[in-house]
Specification:
Helix content: over 70%
Distance between the termini: 23 Å
Number of helices: 2
Order of helices and strands: HH
Mean pLDDT: 83
Number of domains: 1
Strand content: under 5%
């Protein structure tokens, strides 16, 4: 498995989990729903940063191989 497909799968799984959490959240207390949404946004931001750093690292390695 390539590292790209791993990170893509991780990001996709996170997004699917976020959608499920938001779909279930209307049945929860507003405080819980707000916490789920804010945590999902935080994790999404972290995943995006990790993906960006991973892409830059792969690009650097590829450039050094040339």
């Amino acid at each position: 498995m390539s590292q790209r497909s791993f990170w893509g799968g991780l990001l996709t799984g996170g997004l699917i989990g976020m959608v499920i959490a938001i779909a279930v959240a209307p049945q929860l207390k507003p405080e819980t729903r707000n916490r789920i949404v804010s945590t999902s946004k935080e994790w999404s931001g972290r995943a995006g940063k990790m993906l960006h750093r991973g892409r830059e690292a792969v690009k650097d390695v590829a450039d050094n191989l040339r």
